[in-house]
């Protein structure tokens, strides 16, 4: 790969598209990013970043067991994801240990179990691709599964979009007007587990939490309207994932890391220059020139 | 003893107890309110005021006792949009990306379809409610840019839009400007005439005398309950506040 080969923007973009695996990677990662970005608005507003981290790490043993038994990996991941949350709730209620400690304790425990299982179960599980993602090497059965999960999450979030927003904003009011907050709580957790499962293919278990919080945090700095926040979050997630994959292709970098790094840079840009909430409020800068 | 006709009471709480993981927050509490009554809920921090509200809205389950709202269960009261809760300003995330219109529209969610698509009648209810709290100029202002008083009025408008017959207000007068205070007191008179029942918690003793027909003094359980003129005595207040003299509580201004 020679640097001069992408001197024109045109070939920078089109060259990778000639490869089948790149087309697939770009498409799948964008889809996954969009889903995670959609969910991200809710998680950042609900303050569930740590919960996102916990669930995404806890799915590890589920993925390993599912692979070993020949089951869909999403099933195993889902069971362990929801299981970890239930366990966190149980330990918190039955002991005097503080919540953040319990969360940290449970998810590292699950994660460690996953790593031990990988070393024990004789199979062709690629630890590296679970930990760091492998969007370029995604198999056809994984593609089908991913598309199915993504559609499911998008449909669920779309139907309960406003209820979830109300649940994040004022659960007490939601309950008072007869909305089932118990259901919404577990709906959000279910979507979180599912998004973590598809997200880990793109960027791996370790970084998947970034997909679940960074786009939402970026959007939060850029708007005061919830609907706009969702749109911005989804767009920034898709753009980061495209940038990440292209950059990783041309410079031969780890793909998952590149995607997350692109998200981080977009966040930093918003942090510095967001019109209203940025450090150097862009509006004011422009106003100065008028 | 006379037989109780539940239909006469909007709120009927009988010997209710609430505990959180074995810690008792409220026990043997009773309350009966009729349409058009305004009742003040007075007690120290941690005396169970919020817990009482939570029990009435069904946000926490009671471990003992019985609650009837308009003669029905709390659950059907939720379905019927009977109770509206107006939170303390501190109780909500003011940085949440919603504007005045969005918040007031939330009052209609319970009676909308599953996608929460506003109908013409919902839009009208929201418009009317916002007009009544005098925020028509701030329809699309994010709640983060409102003053404390404006934010309080926004949540009052949500309760109005909900068309609830019972209003629970958590510290309605804390951190609000004179204009909002005046508007709230005018609304109280209107609510009373409409036959709504109001239960409000407050730290401010003056407001109790000014607005409340009845007062409920609590300290984990009911210390005293009845007509404000009879019950709101220095002795009762001192008992409620764990032996602190009312002179200290009322402050020099009163």
UniProtKB/TrEMBL annotation, chain A:
Localization of this protein: Cell membrane; Membrane
Keyword Transferase: no
GO biological process: cellular response to iron ion; response to zinc ion; transmembrane transport
Keywords: Membrane, Transmembrane, Transmembrane helix, Transport
Cited CDD domains: TM_ABC_iron-siderophores_like
GO cellular component: ATP-binding cassette (ABC) transporter complex
Protein topology in the membrane: Multi-pass membrane protein
SUPFAM superfamilies attached to this UniProt entry: ABC transporter involved in vitamin B12 uptake, BtuC (SSF81345)
Keyword Transmembrane attributed: yes
Transmembrane parts of this sequence: 25-45, 65-90, 102-123, 143-160, 181-198, 204-222, 229-251, 257-274
Protein family per UniProt: Belongs to the ABC-3 integral membrane protein family.
Protein name: ABC transporter component, possibly Mn transport
Organism: Prochlorococcus marinus (strain MIT 9301)
Taxonomic classification: Bacteria, Bacillati, Cyanobacteriota, Cyanophyceae, Synechococcales
């Amino acid at each position: 790969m020679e640097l001069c080969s992408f001197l024109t923007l045109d070939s920078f973009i089109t060259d990778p598209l000639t490869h089948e695996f790149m087309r697939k990677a770009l498409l799948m990662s964008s889809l996954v990013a969009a889903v995670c970005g959609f969910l991200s608005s809710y998680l950042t507003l609900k303050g569930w970043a740590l919960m996102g981290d916990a669930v995404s790490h806890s799915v590890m043993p589920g993925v390993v067991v599912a692979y070993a038994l020949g089951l869909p990996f999403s099933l195993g991941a889902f069971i362990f994801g929801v299981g970890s949350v239930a366990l966190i709730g149980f330990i918190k209620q039955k002991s005097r240990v503080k919540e953040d400690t319990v969360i940290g304790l449970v998810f590292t425990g699950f994660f460690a179990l996953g790593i031990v299982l990988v070393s024990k179960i004789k199979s062709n599980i690629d630890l590296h691709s679970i930990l760091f993602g492998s969007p370029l090497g995604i198999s056809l059965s994984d593609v089908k599964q991913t598309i199915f999960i993504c559609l499911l999450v998008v449909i669920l979030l779309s139907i309960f979009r406003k209820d979830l927003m109300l649940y994040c904003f004022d659960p007490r009011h939601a309950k008072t007007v007869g909305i089932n907050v118990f259901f919404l709580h577990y709906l959000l957790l279910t979507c979180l587990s599912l998004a973590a499962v598809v997200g880990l293919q793109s960027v791996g278990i370790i970084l998947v939490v970034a997909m679940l919080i960074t786009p939402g945090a970026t959007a939060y700095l850029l708007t005061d309207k919830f609907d706009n926040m969702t749109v911005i979050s989804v767009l920034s997630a898709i753009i980061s994932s495209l940038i990440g994959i292209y950059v990783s292709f041309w410079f031969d970098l780890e793909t998952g890391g590149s995607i997350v790094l692109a998200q981080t840079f977009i966040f930093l840009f918003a942090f510095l220059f967001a019109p209203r909430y940025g450090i150097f409020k862009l509006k004011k800068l422009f106003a100065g020139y008028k | 003893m006379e037989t109780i006709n539940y239909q006469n009471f909007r709120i009927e709480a009988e010997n209710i107890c609430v505990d959180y993981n074995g810690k008792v927050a409220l026990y043997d509490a009773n309350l009966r309110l009729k349409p058009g009554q305004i009742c003040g809920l007075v007690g120290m921090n941690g005396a169970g005021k919020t817990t009482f509200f939570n029990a009435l809205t069904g946000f926490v389950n009671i471990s003992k006792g019985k609650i009837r709202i308009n003669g029905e269960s709390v659950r059907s009261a939720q379905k019927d949009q009977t109770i509206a809760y107006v939170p303390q300003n501190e109780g909500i995330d003011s940085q949440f990306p919603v504007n005045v219109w969005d918040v007031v529209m939330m009052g209609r969610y319970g009676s909308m379809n599953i996608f929460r698509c506003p109908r013409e009648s919902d839009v009208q209810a929201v418009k009317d409610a916002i007009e009544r709290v005098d925020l028509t100029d701030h329809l699309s202002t994010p709640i983060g840019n409102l003053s404390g008083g404006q934010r309080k009025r926004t949540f009052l408008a949500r309760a109005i839009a909900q068309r609830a017959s019972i209003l629970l207000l958590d510290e309605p007068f804390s951190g609000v400007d004179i204009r909002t205070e005046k508007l709230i007191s005018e609304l109280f008179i209107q609510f009373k005439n409409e036959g709504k029942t109001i239960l409000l918690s407050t730290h401010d003793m003056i407001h109790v005398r000014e607005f409340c027909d009845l007062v409920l003094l609590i300290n984990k359980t009911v210390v005293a309950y009845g007509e404000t003129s009879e019950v709101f005595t220095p002795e009762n207040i001192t008992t409620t506040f764990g032996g602190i003299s009312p002179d200290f509580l009322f402050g020099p201004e009163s």
